[in-house]
Amino acid sequence: MTFIWAFLIAGTFCALGQIILDNTKLTPGHVTSLFTVLGSLLAFFGIYEKLIELGGGGATGIISNFGYMLYTGALEGFHEMGILGIFSGMLTKSSTAIVGSIIFASIVALIFKPKD
Amino acid sequence: MNKEEYQKLVKKYEPKENKFENVIYAFLIGGVVGFITEGIIVLLMNFFELSRIVAGAWTCLIIIFAASLFTALGFFDNWMTKAKAGLLIPTTGFAHSVSSSALDYKKEGLITGLGANFFKLAGSVILYGILSAFILVIVRVIIGG
């Protein structure tokens, strides 16, 4: 069942993104930023957690999960250390994605030549 | 021929993009990516007896690695144009934007090229993600979380 929800949730987010791309003048950069903000908004209302429970990787595998991780990291930080925790906790969960993309992008940039 | 007539003519011969088809494509490809992501998580959980959170983090790394590698090999750009939002909204879009700007700006030097442009596209995701999360956490704290 999780698999079906994973398909539906990820698919719906992508379809929404495509509708925005096709019907407005927003660029892919706008849309990815928008969906990140949407992720932290859904986390704020407690909806994103439900989506992850339902769809597992379908919800954690999209860019909105980045916003969710930022929000929950900062909130957990606040519960541990107060105001300072918002600053120190914000990136704890999303560190994997950021450092991962920095390391892998650097490695491929060292090894490969750009195709044009 | 005046400007208006010319515009009409341009519109007539412009290839029509089928918006409905685009949305279906994005839905299906995005769905498949979500399905595969969940598949890798379940596989890792069963094979290495990892918790869901640890398996999820490894899956995130695997997908970022795959997207970076495919971008470097050159065929991911084609996929991105065909799949449209189907590959943009998943984590693959983020990884693709970082690795493609790293590859493209390498020739302009390590600092002024690669370093300065590394987060050219992904930077706004990080910036607005952090800003919105910060404001929302402050709101949550004020209304009593």
Give the topology.
The complex is a heterodimer of chains A (116) and B (145).
Chain A: H1 2-23, H2 28-44, H3 47-55, H4 57-60, H5 64-81, H6 83-89, H7 95-111
Chain B: H1 3-13, H2 19-48, H3 52-73, H4 76-83, H5 85-88, H6 91-105, H7 110-117, H8 122-142
Helix pairs in contact in B: 2-3, 3-6, 6-7
Structure described in brief:
Chain A is mainly alpha-helical and 116 residues long. Chain A has seven helices and no strands. Chain A has one domain (2-111).
Key structural traits:
heterodimer, A: mainly alpha, 0% strand, B: 145 residues, mainly alpha, 82% helix, extended
What this model shows, in words?
The complex is a heterodimer of chains A (116) and B (145). Chain A has 116 residues and is mostly helical. Chain A has one domain (2-111). Helices cover 81% and strands 0% of the residues of chain A. Chain A has 7 helices and no strands. In chain A, 53% of the residues are buried. Chain B has 145 residues and is mostly helical. Chain B has one domain. Helices cover 82% and strands 0% of the residues of chain B. Chain B has helices spanning 3-13, 19-48, 52-73, 76-83, 85-88, 91-105, 110-117, 122-142. Chain B is extended. Chain B starts with a helix and ends with a helix. The model of chain B has no long low-confidence stretch (mean pLDDT 90). Classes of the chains: A mainly alpha (116), B mainly alpha (145).
